[in-house]
Specification:
The complex is a heterodimer of chains A (about 700) and B (about 200).
Chain A (H helix, E strand, L loop, with lengths): L13 H5 L15 E7 L5 E6 L1 H5 L3 E5 L26 E2 L5 E7 L2 H10 L1 E6 L11 E2 L9 E4 L2 H7 L2 E9 L11 E7 L2 E6 L4 H12 L6 E4 L15 H13 L3 E4 L15 E9 L5 E13 L21 E10 L12 H19 L3 H7 L16 H12 L11 E3 L2 E13 L5 E7 L5 E4 L9 H13 L6 E4 L16 H23 L10 H12 L4 E7 L4 H4 L3 E12 L6 E11 L6 H20 L5 E2 L4 E2 L18 E5 L23 H13 L10 H5 L1
Parallel strand pairs in A: 1-13, 11-12, 15-16, 20-21, 24-27
Antiparallel strand pairs in A: 1-5, 2-4, 2-6, 3-5, 7-16, 8-16, 9-14, 10-11, 10-13, 14-15, 17-18, 18-23, 19-20, 19-22, 23-24, 25-26
Chain B lengths: L7 H16 L5 H11 L12 E7 L2 E7 L5 H8 L18 E4 L2 E4 L12 E3 L12 H8 L9 H14 L5 H7 L10 H11 L5
Parallel strand pairs in B: 1-5
Antiparallel strand pairs in B: 1-2, 3-4, 3-5
Helix pairs in contact in B: 1-2, 4-7
The chains are: A alpha+beta (about 700), B alpha+beta (about 200).
């Protein structure tokens, strides 16, 4: 069945999803299950005093868990974000919407009602609620990614024939997956089973074991289907710990599902970034200096840093480069990964600045980027493959870039202003160790097991394709099981690395199974042709019941020799109402070279989704805080706006074929995140082209264009 | 005050409590005054009638339940009838994930109390296929990859089925407009539009 990999196969889990049969974590039914509802703080800083007497007396209430009676946990103090999990261990409130109590009752309604009866008094403490008011510091985490210096960028900028220098702001954004975070936790003696909406069951198992001080082997985490994650479900958050604590307290399985307003509490967000990008260039547009300085927020109790400036070491060549990252501590929950953490924001700044440089030099924005293409990154490492040039070329061709009159406000459609914008994109290719099992059954069908989680990317499908191709089976004869920590280990579905990691392991495990089948056939490969029937016959003849292929796949040393990244180009066309300041994206073309594409259908969906996220980032998404109190003012989907169907035009992804032998066994680079990189900049650049207004702080809302 | 009977004043005080707590510490005199007023009112036990018999006709089958009248259709389906194909995305009527058909009309099950829809025909995603035979809209979503994580999908599909019955899906723009009550955070919108239009017999 060669040629199966790459084919636009329908999702193998699709039938479960369109019939409602796919079970997400909140839908796991266990005997004796009871409902936990969290009570969240209503202040950003202080100490809480919980009066739960009325709630305890309310009908159906089994327990109210507060710092007084909550089981003790210890997150161990290793690793970023873990203090978040030290929940109900003391009365200190460090951020708005921090859990201060949990009500457990026999029904969801009764738990919710009783939660409203919990009275919390706060002794207020000073809170840092304004980005500008927080002191900047150099982060301890982040290692060598914190600062990068090459040549003398400041001096080169001073001497540059042409320079642009701007400050770009991306506000706090929340992931808002459609499925709220959910945990069902059950103890059996010292054994903990957690059905958790998580992007990584192995990571969740380790974190929970550490927090409860029990062996890893005593924890099982299951996540068969999750309703979107986008990085927000890449970590264990307080509600998961609280569900397990409550289950211990009441000695019954407990379910905690976050409400939508609670989704703005302690489950992470994209931190606000304020970036200075300065570019120096010759009159020919060739860059002589890039300065990319980022200031971002973190919490008062944990540190999270995204490599916002990292993209400036990758996209273009320059002899002089300075990248710095600084943090500011605010009384918020701790920020976390959100689709292309770093690159999504960094590309908005860098690619807006490149557009400004195009206007400053009078060079076409596509041509300017082509002139600054490079074959090595800032450390001098050659790229394992690099499709930036081809993505710009093919994208411009499909988009009709040549029809663009570069003068701002020069193009119109009736009374509407027309704008066309471009931006470049890149995202690093990550990979971690992973294992897999491919079992061939007596009937010749196969079973694939990996603990990796399909967060909607299509992992169930592409992994099935990989195994099926190696075994010569149609996809219908391969069954796949994912999302259980009892299965062979895989990293998080995050950083666009699950397919590279677990997919490689599945290929190696399938090859191992195939080698064992071949040995059974005494090397006669023709005995394996004919699908499950042929394999069943072979196994019957050989007298074996099952064959197990296993693998432990690890990154090779090519990562030391090569810089590995996906590259792409984003093209957006907008209509701007000159009287109302409203922006509509009417067309979007994006082109990516991301290694081998395992399934063209699901890959295109990822690229389309990335563009939709770009539209949200550029025009809509903004978590607003009351800066006096540090409280969130937009904690619902009526006030935190995400794109709806009417906001999204036709999106035309272009897949640039790429054969990269260095990245991993299956030649993939990861496609989940690059789709958003540069997308907001392409829209912002189109808005500039349409209006002559350069908006450097997102989102681009009407009042900024009318100002 | 009669215990067990919700007065307008008590209801307002209780509803305002979270807001009041938010106000404490930021020095709003109005909110602080409200907070003091609230502090003098003791919090009352849950009020309202207890569980009552409710009959729901779901996917052609009658289900007898004993539930409190405050139970939403969404929670009745998910937590009492194990029909978890109907999804809870916001519980506030903003996302459309809980869309079901009530007498053929699309409604947000999270904003509908179960007691309100007795004697009405409720269709959920579980009732759409004919045995193993997918409904054409389900098949179109699968063929056009009109989803990724799948969580908004049941609501999208039921919304799309109702849209075609409403005869509003006349072209691409109208499909986009009339499907905008169903949020898809994965951003599958163009594929959703293609799926709906293919069932509507429109060229894409």
């Amino acid at each position: 069945m060669s040629g199966l990999v790459g084919a636009p196969v329908d999702r193998v889990d699709g039938r479960l999803k369109v019939t409602g049969a796919a079970k997400y974590s909140a839908e796991i039914a266990l005997p004796g299950l009871v409902y936990g509802v969290m009570v969240l703080s209503t202040t950003a800083s202080g100490t809480s005093q919980v009066d739960a007497d009325a709630a305890r007396r309310a009908p159906g209430v089994i327990a109210v868990m507060t710092p007084q009676n909550a089981p003790r946990v210890d997150s161990g103090g290793n690793g970023a974000g873990d203090r978040t999990l030290m929940v109900l261990q003391d009365e200190v409130v460090r951020y708005d919407r921090q859990p201060v109590a949990v009500v457990v009752a026999d029904t969801f309604e009764r738990a919710t009602d009783a939660a409203a009866m919990v009275r919390v008094r706060y002794a207020a403490a000073p809170a840092v609620t304004r980005f500008d008011a927080a002191a900047e510091y150099k982060p301890a985490s982040g290692g060598r990614d914190v600062d990068k210096h090459k040549g003398d960028a400041a001096a080169a900028l001073a001497q540059a024939a042409v320079k642009v220098d701007g400050t770009y702001i991306v506000p706090v954004e929340h992931h808002n997956p459609m499925e709220p975070h959910a945990t069902v936790a059950q103890w059996d003696g010292d054994q903990l089973t957690v059905y958790e909406s998580t992007q990584g069951v192995i990571n969740a198992r380790r974190t929970l074991a550490q927090t409860f001080g029990i062996p890893t082997a005593s924890v099982r985490v299951v996540s068969k289907f999750i309703g979107g994650g986008f990085g927000g479900k890449g970590s264990v958050w307080p509600h998961a710990v609280l569900a397990a604590m409550a289950a211990k307290l009441v000695n019954r399985p407990v379910k905690i599902v976050l409400s939508r307003p609670q989704m703005f509490g302690s489950v992470g967000f994209r931190p606000q970034t304020v970036q200075r990008v300065a570019l120096g260039a010759g009159s020919d547009g060739r860059l002589s200096a890039i300065i990319h300085e980022t200031s971002a927020q973190t919490s008062v109790f944990d540190e999270f840093m995204a490599g916002t400036g990292a993209i400036s070491a990758v996209l273009y060549g320059t002899p002089n480069l300075t990248i710095t990252h600084r943090l500011r501590r605010l009384n918020t929950s701790t920020p976390t990964f959100m689709r292309a953490p770093g690159e999504a924001c960094g590309s908005f700044a860098l690619e807006s600045a490149m557009d400004e440089l195009a206007y400053a030099t009078g060079i076409d924005p596509v041509e300017l980027r082509l002139r600054n293409d490079t074959q090595v990154d800032a450390d001098g490492k050659p790229f394992s493959s690099r499709a930036l040039r081809e993505a710009l070329r093919q994208g411009a061709e499909r988009f009709g870039w040549s029809r663009r009159d570069p003068r701002p406000r020069s193009m119109r459609d009736g009374r509407l202003l027309v704008g066309m914008g471009v931006a470049a994109a890149s995202y690093p290719t990550h990979r971690s160790a992973a294992s897999a099992l491919v079992r061939v059954n007596a009937d010749g069908t196969a079973l694939v097991q990996s603990s990796g989680v399909d967060i909607g990317t299509g992992a169930y499908t592409v992994f099935t394709q990989i195994a099926a191709e190696q075994l010569g089976l149609p996809v219908e004869q391969v069954r796949i099981e994912l999302g259980d920590s009892a299965f062979p280990a895989a990293p998080n579905a995050g950083g666009s690395q699950l397919t590279a990691s677990a997919g490689s392991a599945i290929k190696l495990a399938a090859l191992d199974a195939r080698a064992k089948l071949l040995a059974l056939a005494r090397g006669d490969a023709s005995a394996l042709i004919g699908g499950a029937a042929a394999i069943a016959a072979l196994m019957r003849t050989g007298g074996v019941e099952t064959i197990e292929g296993r693998s432990d796949a690890k990154p090779g040393d090519d990562a030391q020799k090569y810089a590995m990244h996906s590259f792409g180009a984003q093209f957006a066309e907008v209509r701007v109402d000159p009287d109302l300041g409203t922006v509509r994206v009417v067309r979007f073309v994006n082109a990516f070279g991301a290694g081998r594409i395992l399934n063209e259908k699901t890959a295109r969906s990822q690229y389309i989704g990335g563009a939709v996220w770009g539209i949200g980032m550029a025009l809509l998404e903004h978590t607003r805080y009351d800066e006096r109190s540090g409280r969130i003012m937009t904690a619902n989907l009526a006030e935190y706006l995400v794109p709806v169907n009417a906001d999204v035009p036709a999106i035309e992804p272009i897949i640039i074929p790429e054969d990269d032998p260095h990245v991993n066994e299956i030649g993939v680079k990861g496609i989940g995140e690059i789709g958003i990189v540069g997308a907001a900049a392409a829209i912002a650049n189109a808005v500039y082209h349409a209006t002559g207004k350069r908006v450097r702080d997102l989102p681009i809302t009407p009042e900024k264009l009318l100002a | 005050m009669d215990v067990g009977k919700v007065t307008r004043r008590r209801f307002l005080v209780r509803a305002a409590l979270p807001t009041i707590a938010a106000g404490v510490g930021i020095g709003s005199p109005r909110l602080c005054a409200l907070a003091q007023a609230a502090a003098s009112v003791s919090v009352l036990p849950a009020s309202g009638p207890g569980p009552m018999p409710v009959t729901l006709n779901v996917n052609g089958r009658a289900h007898e339940l004993r539930i409190e009248p405050r139970v939403t259709l969404l929670d009745a389906l998910r937590e009492r009838l194990a029909l978890t194909g109907t999804k809870k995305g916001c519980d506030q009527g903003t996302c459309g994930a809980c869309t079901v058909l009530v007498d053929g009309r699309r409604v947000n099950a999270c904003l509908t109390l179960a007691v309100m829809v007795q004697r009405k025909a409720i269709t959920t995603i579980e009732g759409l296929a004919d045995g193993d035979q997918l409904h054409p809209m389900q098949a179109a979503f699968l063929a056009h990859d009109g989803f990724q994580c799948g969580y908004c999908t049941p609501g999208q599909i039921l919304s799309a089925v109702a849209l075609l019955a409403e005869k509003r899906a006349t072209d691409e723009a109208s499909v986009r407009e009339w499907m905008s009550g169903n949020i898809c955070r994965c951003g599958a919108y163009p594929n959703i539009v293609a799926a709906v239009r293919s069932v509507a017999g429109q060229p894409s």
